[in-house]
Amino acid sequence: MRILKKSLKIVGERITMADSIKARNLGDEYQILFFWLKACELLNDYSNIDRISYENSEIRSLDDVVVSYKKPIKDISGNSIYIEYYQVKYHVDYRGNITADNLMDPKFINASKHSFLEKVKGALPLLNKDNKTGIAILVTPWSINPADELAKLKIIDTKVGKFREEILFDGKNNSFVAKLRNKLKVHLGVTQDSELRDILKPIRIWGGFPQYEVLVRNLNGQFSSVGLKPIDMSQRINPYVSLLQRLFQEGITTFNKEELIMICKEQGLWSGKNIMRAEESPVGIRSFLRRAENMENDTSAMICLLEYFNGRYLKDKYTWNEDVKGATEGFIREYLDEGRSYCIYLDTHSSVAFTAGFFLDPKSGVNVVPVQKGLSGREIWRPNSNVPKERYPVWKIEQENIDENGNDIVIVIEMTHHANEDVKEFIGSNNLSVKSVIRFHFEDGPSYSSIQDGIHARYLANDISLTLNKLSKEDRKRRYHIFGSGPNGFYFFLGQFSRSFGQVSLYEYDFEISKEYYETINLP
Question: Which residue, 113, 149, 176, 356, is most buried by CB atoms nearer than 10 A?
Answer without folding.
Answer: 356
